[in-house]
Structure formats: structure tokens, C-alpha cells
Write a structure and sequence with these properties.
217 residues; mainly alpha; 10 helices; 65% helix; globular
Length: 217
């Protein structure tokens, strides 16, 4: 008979995956050891192997889990009855919000997917294509001529370029939140620089008080 899982097995493994993602994102996949993962989870190395077979399996869980959440996001938006512009704006908003909570997983996906075995890479890249295609089709919904001109995918990749690397510079404790940035990205996408709302609360520089002139003599 197969060994029965202990209560809390799945939640413990999720914690391990989360801690591994943080370590891989900070130190890189190859430089991180299973000993370090075990220590981060307050587990012995033997206990760690009860939940995952090796470091490669951890990488698969991180990348696949992230892509599955993005695909679910795409499916969720697809089920809503929306006008083309509203659909594209909602996709942008949902992606930015998802990345806010998955910065480590996203960094691992972008920098360490090359270390996966070919069969795992193929499956994860297939999920990435689904995500890109959904965004490209949302763009075509707004501008149908993009499909014939074959510009839908290049514009989609430019859009993802704005979204994907936001974690590199956006400070979590700054005046700009991911929620606010989602609106900025959409405004920039639809209207160029002239459409971006620059009057964001908390960001305006305080007015410089002019010194009163001292009367001569």
C-alpha cells in the first residue's frame, strides 16, 4: 500500500517551494544547495527529502506553479464579458498584481528555466506561449489590423518587457504601488507618454518655499 501523507504535507511542501524560490532568486539555482533550503525551512536534510526528491524537482515546482497561476489568470479574464479595451486593461492589471506577489518565482522562471530538463522546459514554455498568445489576441481585439501586420506579438513582448522587469526597480515601500503601476502601464500602452497620469498621490514633490527677501539696510 502507498504510504499515507501526514496532515499538513501539502502546506509544508508549499512552504519549502516558497523558501526555495527566495533562495534561487537571490543566489541562483546552481549556487543554492539543498542544505540551505533545509535550513531556511527549519528542517533536517532528511526531512526535506520527504517532500521533494531533489533540487531539480524544486525548480520544476517553482516554474510550473508560476506559469499555472498565470494561465489561470488568463482563463479567468477570458470568461468575463468585456469590451476589447477593458479586457486588455484587466489583463495588464491582473498580471502586474500577480507579479507583485510572485517576484521570486518570476525571477527564477526568467533566469533559471534553462536548467530544467528538456521535457519540463517544453511543458513550461508551452504555458508561457499560452500566456503570450492571450495577451496578443487581446491587443488584436483593440486593433484588429495588428494581426495582418504581424505586429501583435512584438507589441505584446514590449508590453511584457514593461511588466516583467518591474520587480527590478519598483520599491515595495515606495509611493508607487503595483496597483498604481498597472494603470500607468495601460495608459502608456494606449496613449503614449501624453496619456500617463502623473498626478499620483504621494509622489508629487513638496513645493520649495522661497526665502523672503531681506530688506537692504
Amino acid at each position: 500500500m502507498p504510504r499515507k501523507r501526514a496532515a499538513g504535507f501539502d502546506s509544508q511542501r508549499e512552504l519549502i517551494i516558497k523558501q526555495a524560490a527566495a533562495l534561487f532568486a537571490c543566489n541562483g539555482f546552481t549556487a543554492t544547495t539543498m542544505n540551505e533550503v533545509a535550513q531556511a525551512c527549519s528542517l533536517s536534510k532528511a526531512s526535506l527529502y520527504h517532500y521533494v526528491s531533489d533540487k531539480n524537482e524544486l525548480l520544476v515546482y517553482i516554474c510550473e506553479g508560476h506559469i499555472e497561476r498565470l494561465c489561470a489568470l488568463v482563463d479567468e479574464v477570458a470568461q468575463q464579458t468585456l469590451e476589447p479595451e477593458a479586457r486588455l486593461r484587466l489583463l495588464v492589471q491582473r498580471f502586474v498584481e500577480e507579479y507583485a506577489d510572485a517576484q521570486n518565482e518570476h525571477r527564477v522562471l526568467t533566469q533559471d528555466v534553462k536548467f530544467l530538463q528538456a521535457k519540463d522546459q517544453k511543458r513550461i514554455l508551452s504555458g508561457e506561449r499560452k500566456v503570450v498568445d492571450a495577451m496578443a489576441q487581446a491587443m488584436v481585439g483593440v486593433r484588429p489590423e495588428l494581426e495582418a501586420s504581424r505586429m501583435a506579438k512584438p507589441l505584446t513582448m514590449l508590453l511584457f518587457g514593461m511588466i516583467n522587469w518591474m520587480f527590478m526597480w519598483l520599491k515595495p515601500d515606495g509611493g508607487l504601488t503595483h496597483e498604481k503601476m498597472a494603470g500607468v502601464v495601460s495608459d502608456l500602452l494606449f496613449g503614449g507618454m501624453g496619456a500617463v497620469n502623473v498626478d499620483i498621490p504621494g509622489l508629487r514633490k513638496p513645493a520649495v518655499k522661497k526665502k523672503k527677501a531681506v530688506p537692504a539696510g
